[in-house]
TrEMBL record:
InterPro entries: MFS (IPR011701), MFS_dom (IPR020846), MFS_trans_sf (IPR036259). PANTHER family: MAJOR FACILITATOR SUPERFAMILY, VACUOLAR BASIC AMINO ACID TRANSPORTER 4. It is a multi-pass membrane protein. This is MFS transporter. Residues 11-449 form the Major facilitator superfamily (MFS) profile domain. Signal peptide: none annotated. The lineage of its organism: Bacteria, Pseudomonadati, Bacteroidota, Chitinophagia, Chitinophagales. The chain crosses the membrane at residues 47-65, 77-96, 102-122, 134-152, 164-184, 205-223, 229-247, 268-289, 301-321, 328-348, 354-374, 394-414, 426-445. The keyword Transmembrane applies. One of its GO terms (molecular function) is transmembrane transporter activity. One of its GO terms (cellular component) is plasma membrane. It is found in: Endomembrane system. It comes from the Bacteria.
Amino acid sequence: MKSKERIPVGFITPLVLGTMMNPLNSTMLATALTTICQSFGRNISDGALLITPLYLTSTIGQPLMGRLADLYSPKKVNQLGFLLVLLAGITGTVAPTFDWLIVSRVLLGLGTSAAYPSAIALVNRRYAAAGEAVPGGVLGIIAVSGLGSMVLGPALGGLLSETFGWKGIFFINIPWVLVSLWLARALPDTPPAAPVSIRELPQKLDIVGILLFSGMLLNLLLLLLHHSFSPGGTLLLGMLLTLLILWERKQDSPFIDVRLFVQQPSLLLVYLSAMATSYVMYLMLFSLPQWMEHVKQISPARTGLLLLPMSLVSAVAGLLISRHNSLLVKNVAGVGCMIAACAALFFVHADIPIYLLTGITLLVGLSTGINPIANQAWLHEEAPAGRTGVSFGLYRTFGYIGAIVSGSQMKTLYQQGVTDNSFHTVVWFTTASCVLMVLLLLPSISRKKELSLR
């Protein structure tokens, strides 16, 4: 076997373990949320306060950690991420109040944000130093590890919360990180040729851009959690967005590259579709387990096991659709399956047989497996040459924003408790988002038809 084709197990293992932490901690919460809220005497709608912090800090933290990995040592950024997750695991395990769990989730979001960008930086520098191309298998393993942990999350979260109580989903991070840190000792430490001084750091990181973007996201979150319309908050959101755009247009190395939308306006359709897809996926992911545990009175462990086939179907569907060459087929199939899944969820009620409920969850899994792959293929086609990295970074940002909106909306929709009616209200919102996805896809379909007629 050629050298470039070998997968270095000792090198890749700690990177994979790190990459798995964000989606794993995200999906484990889905089946443990009811147990946590009951333990602290909180309404299930307050679960949104545990969902959104991870996505909020990930939205800001991932590009920030990526820049730090590029400017300094990716190994040190990787280790910093592990240490933050360790602190989050300890904080969550010993948390005396619900508020301390929120702190733990913030730390989790920041710590897990370091894993993916530092892993990619470590891989690139390792093979660049050896004068070799990065093996596709290495990047593939890192990418698939995230999907695998999403599959594992709901089942593991349900099992841990039922066996060890809700503390189990926080405690598991402690041995996970300790093993990862021990394995990461052998990772190469390759600092950049020209280190950045502390004086240059604010400009290189675009601190003003980070603060404006963070303020905008926090304001958006507060607006979403507010039960009534806030004119002042909406005005502030508009002002922060305007300031962010004006500032970032002038920066040589902007935190959010808004110039990309001018260079390639069609990218906005892709990003909005990614946001809508993420919104639907996470609203389904968090609302369905709560309904199963509250209305159907299914235990957390059994809920996780019932959702495991859905997750497996999602993974298989994603892998299969990725092999299809037609972008149009991918997108139409994805949106079509998601509309079908939303329609099927209207038939979910307290008396539904388990076998029918399982069948509906499989349809949900099919839709959540196809759509992200279809959106990524769409992005790959629209991204300008030489701007792929920036384009994909913004893609992940919009996806996280969709997750933030869905998580915060849970607080409003389940404010009066989890019932058939409140669950169906959730489904109406996901259906409306599917309609938006269809509208966003229409210009692309029209353009394909025009090109085929020429």
